[in-house]
Input
Amino acid sequence: MNKVEKADHAKDFNPEAEYRKLVEKYAQNGELKKVAVVVLTEKRKTLGITDTKAEEIETEILAPVRKHLADLQSYKQYFAEEVEQKYPLDEHTLNILKDYQDMLGLRDEDVASIELEITSVKKTEYQKQLQIQKQKQEYENNLQRYEQELIKAVQAQYPLDEYVGNGLKTFQQFLKLRDEDINLIEQKILAPKQAEYEHQQQELEKLDQEQVKNSENSLLLDKVRGDDLRLDLKLDFREAIFGGEKEICISHLKSCEVCKGFGRTYTSLTYVTANRKCNFCDGKGLNPVTQKLKINIPAGIENGTRLRIAQEGDERQGGGNPGDLYIYLFVNQDKEFKRNGINILSEITIDQQQAISGCHLGVNTVDGRVELIIPPKIRTNQVMKLKNRGVPRLGNPSSRGDHLITIIVKN
Output
């Protein structure tokens, strides 16, 4: 290098710019390592830069980095506080954090690692909580499924037979339901049903005892009596529920009015008594007679119930008390209603909008049309109750069961 070139080089050489390059080279995360400080101290002497000037250059270079790191730390602090209070973050909070990020001049890639670091643990906890909640909700849904099946079974038959009981036990095992939870459901549903069943059995037992007592009294009065008769009588659904007076027509044997039931007539002539077969009853002593009777049907009577009408059976040849008339009641099915004990069952169908929003509907009952209030978010197969719209209790018609309406949500 000639003297001219050396002069030009010396003229272009800038010690401060050279020192700046060295500081930028050694700076790391806004700081200078101890060994870098030692090297730079020697370079100051070589370049002829004062300590004051060197500190100005270092501050100028390191300050933005330090500010950037401080801003990252500030963002990290606020982000961590928000996540700790609530996770996942809602849209409102995310918008505020985004504005704070822009205010600090941080890029998305700058905050991405911070957010990932903080949310990774929370995300795992959150997913675990979601899984627990999901399992809990599934269990609650399975409990409701079992309860609905139990209600259907009890509505169809009570007491439950062994076959139905085994089926419910298998269903419980399939749904993986705990025994203690099943016991609570069964206590809620079966306890009232058992009380109702026991009451009905007591009432039927009273009727049987009264019939036996009346029968025994009749035998004590006269052990010789005519034959009993049976009449099968069909009732409409509502007739069985409310009972009332009903006229029937029967045919039974009555003592002949001519021979008084003995089958022979006696004609007294002078010194002679004529004993002849009664022509009016052909010697049988009895004649068939068709007769209309008014009977009282008790409210709440069930299919297959037997009524006893004393001394309305056949009379006996030669006298004695008539037999009894036993009326067996058979209830016709109704197109709209079914009966389970003292409760009446029916179904109504609603659409999805009515199920979601709830509605007021007019429904038919045995008492006529009434309003049913369906709450929002009702599920299909859910049962609603109209109290005291069911069947009168046998022997206590002022006390009535309920009308149970199954809601069917149309897809």
User: Anything to note?
Assistant: The chain is about 50% helix and 25% strand.
